[in-house]
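Minutes, methods subgroup
Present: GH (chair), OT, SY

1. OT presented the first of two proteins processed in the latest run. Sequence and structure tokens recorded below as shown on screen.
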Amino acid sequence: SARVSSGPWLSLSYTYFLVLIHYGETIVAWRDAGYHTQPQYEAFRALLQAPKDDAQAIIKDRFPVPRFIECDQHSSQARFLLSRINPSVTHTSSSSGYGTSSGEIVFTEDVSLQTFMDHLKRLAVQNA
């Protein structure tokens, strides 16, 4: 969901053709500051390494081999994640806008899963 696409997180997601590790803004800032190279931040180093190990385990058992992508929030490769998430926060959402902490706005004409389900329920009740 787009609501969780901002903040201190990293995710490993995979589909049939793609294995993606996506780093949130805070994780990128910590990594760029070099915290993972300092001995007192061994847990952070392990946090960065765990999704890489999991991705390699997924890739080695798959045929055809999926594409492996590592990307940071707001990088050009982040489009692979944005194309697959539920657009729960869009440019047409009335409850969100720039400067809010409800998630990153996804510019799409698709509707969120919640909007689709609400519309489907209305149609089911209307036709009954």
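2. SY then presented the second protein from the same run.
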Amino acid sequence: MGGKNAKDAKATAGRPDFNDRELTRLAETFRAISALDDEARRTQTLNRKALASYFKGDLGGCLFEWMAHGAPAVTLDVFVAYTELLLKEPMRYVKSEYSDKSFDKLELVIAIILKTPTILGDREAYSQVHLSASDVNKLTFGLIGLLVEREEKAEKAAQALTARILDEGSKETTLDTFFSRLRAELLLINIAVRRFFAKKLLGEQATSVPPMDRPSNLLDEGLLALLALSNGSIANAPKATLLFSTLSHGTSFNRLAYALRGYNAPTLFVLKHTEGGHSYLLGAFTKDQWEEALAYAGKPETFLFSLWPRYKPFFAFKGRGAANYTYFNTKKLERSKYKQGLGFGGNFERYRLWIDDELESGSYIQPDDETYEVGFLADPSVEKLKLEVVEVWGFGDDSAIEGREVFRQQELEEVERRRKVDRKAFGGTGFDKDIFFEKTFAGARQGHEDVDFLKSEAQQK
């Protein structure tokens, strides 16, 4: 299997950890890169110009210097040997000088960009390498740039990630701190780096950022990449579907709830708070379907986040053990602790993130609770949210949207059925119900409002 290309690659590169199909594909990729430059094509090698044409930004040049190691060009055997480091897990690499070192894909690609491969795996050396704010921004820009189609979409995300890595007011950090903070927030960074090189070198069809079905007023591809690097359900989603936006659906909480009910896939809330000339992006993600209940729901994969101007996810597994992940209630209940709205964390008296039925005036955040990691979702001075824009994105396939439509139809039919039963039982004597049985029939009146709302939404659709 694999033919002459595989045999040639295996013969020249010793015994790399690739099967025949992979070796054949690497040989094809080598020829495709070589063809990007006349001199490289003539000599059947790779040079700086060819690699720079194939990879984005400065990465191609950095890869050339790493692989060439002072030589004028890179041959197929050298290309395969170094590619093994990028794609395979550390065991016994063909490049023996790397076999006795402990490092991950993140460390490797940063060492390539910094042109310091000799310090790979040396934790003591990492603590001695100092990075300026400009260095950190260059590195974060390079990492996010691996994941986005257009490199300029990495700029805002790189700034947000740089703000997380550097201490407030600091102008430098160490390489060791850079790695530890990056891994703490971007849980999937090593998988994403490997996926990128597998796509470029082996032709694997793997993506780390789901495509958005329409432009967002809050997210760009780079910011979504940050969230995808923190959560596998986002990274592996087939697409991101805009379910709700205050700019197109208005500020009605009923419309927000209507967008959520029946959608059986993960959802992402992104909120824009503006105050004193400064804007902040923050929000929450949950994998579970939203169901109304006078109780908390959800699972530990739910997390909160600050997205701009500083990226920081607040994971439940870093919290203090409580399980108050999500809360969702659309009914007004007089003199009850069960409020109308949508909440994350906290308790029934005070939520960590609260989206009120009065979206623009009643929503708020706080920095601490028992469920999620402690920290500020926006500036420390912000508590009451002044929501300029709210977006909700869904991460299911087309069947999730189809399922929501079926749910809506069933919901409308059920509310209509209850309404007819109510009319039949009491002969339409609304006066008696309102005067003598006000509390008893509050639910019936709510049902009338529900069916009117559902019909209105169906007609608008």
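Chair's summary of item 2: Residues 398-426 form the longest helix (29 residues).
Next meeting: continue with the remaining queue.
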